[in-house]
Amino acid sequence: MSNTIYNPTITESEESNLLTKENTSKKLVVWNDDVNTFDWVIETLVEVCGHSKEQAEQCAYVIHTHGKYAVKNGDFELLNPMCNSICKRGINATIESIGD
């Protein structure tokens, strides 16, 4: 007998979609350094990630105080160009799985 739990309220298609979403959900993490200024990080988050100035300021503060911060969540296809753009500006950024 299988250890699979049957839930009649979730169809096989919905279960597959949920698993796919879980596997593709990522976060864009920006890392603190001693090189880039607050203003440069804020400008980058506004231009690259589409944050408001206030949101970017809050992110920059958290990055500074905690060493890193997930500034955006989404699929890899959405986050990868943003990550590349941030890195081209000299700011360290990575894409990680949610939960890491």
Summarize the structure.
By secondary structure, this protein is an alpha+beta fold. The protein has helices spanning about 10-25, 40-50, 55-65, 75-90, and strands spanning about 25-30, 70-75, 95.
What would you say this structure looks like, in words?
52% of the residues lie in helices and 18% in strands. Mean pLDDT is 85; it is low at 1-10. It contains four helices and three strands. The protein has a domain at 37-100. α2 packs across α3. By secondary structure, the protein is of the alpha+beta class. It has helices at residues 12-24, 38-49, 53-66, 76-88, and strands spanning 26-31, 68-74, 93-97. Strands 2-1-3 form a three-stranded antiparallel sheet. It starts with 11 loop residues before the first helix and ends with a strand. It is globular.
Indicate the proportion of strand residues. Answer: 15-25%
Radius of gyration: 18 Å
Mean pLDDT: 85
Tally of helical segments? 4
SSE ordering: HEHHEHE
Q: Identify the quaternary structure here.
A: single chain
Shape: globular
Helix content: 40-55%
| Distance separating the two termini | 33 Å
How would you characterize the largest beta sheet? 3 strands, antiparallel
Please mark out the parts with pLDDT under 50 across 5 or more consecutive residues, or reply none. 1-10
Task: Note the main attributes of this structure.
100 residues, 3-stranded antiparallel β-sheet, 4 helices, 18% strand, globular
Please render the helix and strand layout as text.
Layout: H1 12-24, E1 26-31, H2 38-49, H3 53-66, E2 68-74, H4 76-88, E3 93-97
Helix pairs in contact: 2-3
